[in-house]
Design a protein that fits this description.
Number of helices of chain A: 8
Shape of chain B: globular
Largest sheet of chain A: none
CATH class of the largest domain in chain B: Alpha Beta
Order of helices and strands of chain B: EHHEHEHHEHHEHHHEHEHHEHH
Bound molecules: iron/sulfur cluster
Order of helices and strands of chain A: HHHHHHHH
Distance between the termini of chain B: 39 Å
Distance between the termini of chain A: 29 Å
Number of domains of chain A: 2
Strand order of the largest sheet of chain B: 2-1-3-4
CATH architecture of the largest domain in chain B: 3-Layer(aba) Sandwich
Number of strands of chain A: 0
Oligomer: heterodimer
Helix content of chain B: 40-55%
Shape of chain A: elongated
Structural class of chain B: alpha/beta
CATH topology of the largest domain in chain B: Rossmann fold
Largest interface: A-B, 51 and 55 residues
Number of strands of chain B: 8
Number of domains of chain B: 2
Radius of gyration of chain A: 19 Å
């Protein structure tokens, strides 16, 4: 659906990252060549206002997979592959929960994560 | 209580690890409203955008959580924007028989299957469906000035969210209006908080947060409804206001604010001492 893009620039006008001076996927769609898809906040505003119904989120995700990932993002991804969560969450979380008056939770196991995700 | 058990609580990674106060306030508020809720054993990351940024396999994670809810025969209650969006998108994707078949091949290894029966609702959506009960339960009207920030992905894309208005949602205004608190219009309540920029570009994220907090300065407290918003707007205020600590603004999660209006004790809602002090000041005005 990116073929439908007329480079009208509306997505870039509303984009919060662009307003702050970042150049992200909406710069690419508006005809620019300096941008990083990793500077997108995933607020989905561009997609909502695009008159051509371009699936900008999809375009952005394709670009992210092409660009080198910032380290913190890669670490979050690796955490998911290892723990099933974007942070290294382990059983000791239940001590913190109990201190806040919350019941313990049963976490997903590393084995279950391995069965779900093969993308390492 | 089991007869009105309707939801399974899905915290997502951020709230699970760092924001027990949000989970606590959500559970106490829903209990006070008689809305039954249970935990989701073995829940995982929702998949997007963390995994989606690297692989199409994100949908297996989202579908896995939907399968857990479906097995319990319950709908999913979310409290963050991105989890809501990710699980709702996966549920829509499962309407395609090919996607469903592919996902179920993967889930079979874990003894699970999914059809996409379990609905996904963010806390705001559930509260809006119960606003009559909420209104009746307000016993301690609040004399606070409240600024708001809306979680983008609870409302967008509109065809996925199917809740409130995708560009100018009003649900948070409507809920706060029930508490008697005065709403301070900031002009930026619908703008993205910018929290997720932090992992790519810290200065950009901090300036996004500063912008929102500056606009909220006429208020006693800023209210959010998402772990990501809260992380930047509350937890990162020390960095946002480096050298200007007097500008720091208390921030509450929506169920904390509503819980206070229902007369629940601040410590039952994980409300921090700065807000308790504000309430005390108000009570003695
Ligand atoms: S993606 Fe849509 S809004 Fe953006 S430039 Fe293309 S047509 Fe315009
Ligand atoms: S989704 Fe990303 S690119 Fe689109 S408006 Fe939001 S921050 Fe900008």
């Amino acid at each position: 659906m990116i073929e439908n893009c007329t480079h009208c620039g509306l997505c870039r006008e509303v984009c919060p990252a662009e307003k702050l001076g970042g150049r992200t996927i909406t710069s690419l769609l508006s005809g620019g060549d300096e941008y990083s898809a990793w500077l997108c906040c995933c607020c989905q505003l561009c997609q909502e206002v695009c008159p051509e119904g371009v699936d900008i989120h999809q375009v952005m995700m394709c670009e992210r997979r092409r660009e080198p990932a910032p380290d913190p993002h890669r670490r979050s991804f690796e955490n998911v592959l290892r723990y099933g969560y974007a942070f290294p969450i382990t059983e000791d979380i239940n001590a913190m929960r109990s201190a806040h008056g919350l019941d313990p939770v049963e976490l997903i196991s590393a084995e279950q994560v391995r069965l779900l995700l093969h993308c390492l | 209580m089991t007869s009105n058990l309707r939801f399974v609580f899905y915290p997502g990674c951020l709230v699970l690890q760092r924001m027990p106060q949000y989970e606590l306030a959500t559970k106490r508020l829903l209990a006070a409203l008689g809305i039954g809720l249970q935990d989701m054993p073995q829940a995982s990351c929702c998949g997007a955008p963390v995994v989606e940024s690297f692989s199409d396999e994100w949908v297996y994670l989202a579908a896995y959580n939907l399968a857990l809810a479906e097995r319990l025969g319950l709908d999913v209650l979310t409290v963050c924007g991105s989890c809501t969006n990710s699980l709702k998108r996966a549920r829509l994707a499962l309407r395609d028989p090919e996607v469903r078949e592919d996902v179920n091949r993967r889930l079979a290894a874990l003894g699970l299957s999914v059809e996409g029966r379990a609905e996904v609702k963010h806390l705001l959506q559930v509260l809006m469906e119960h606003r009559a009960a909420l209104k009746e339960s307000v016993t301690a009207p609040l004399r606070l000035k409240v600024a708001l920030t809306y979680p983008c992905q609870v409302f967008r894309p509109g065809d996925v969210a199917a809740f409130d208005d995708p560009l100018q949602p009003q649900s948070m205004h409507e809920l706060v209006a029930l508490t008697g608190a005065e709403i301070v219009e900031t002009g930026v309540e619908h703008e993205c908080c910018g929290s997720t920029l932090y992992t790519s570009n810290q200065p950009l994220a901090l300036s996004a947060g500063r912008r929102k907090l500056e606009a909220s300065r006429g208020a006693d407290v800023l209210v959010d409804s998402c772990g990501n918003c809260h992380w930047l707007l509350e937890r990162m205020q020390r960095a946002i206001w480096a050298g200007e600590p007097h500008k720091r603004l208390p921030v509450l999660f929506m169920p904390q604010l509503l819980g206070l209006a229902l007369g629940l004790a601040p410590d039952e809602l994980g409300v921090n001492s700065r807000v308790v002090a504000l309430l005390g000041r108000d009570a003695h005005d």
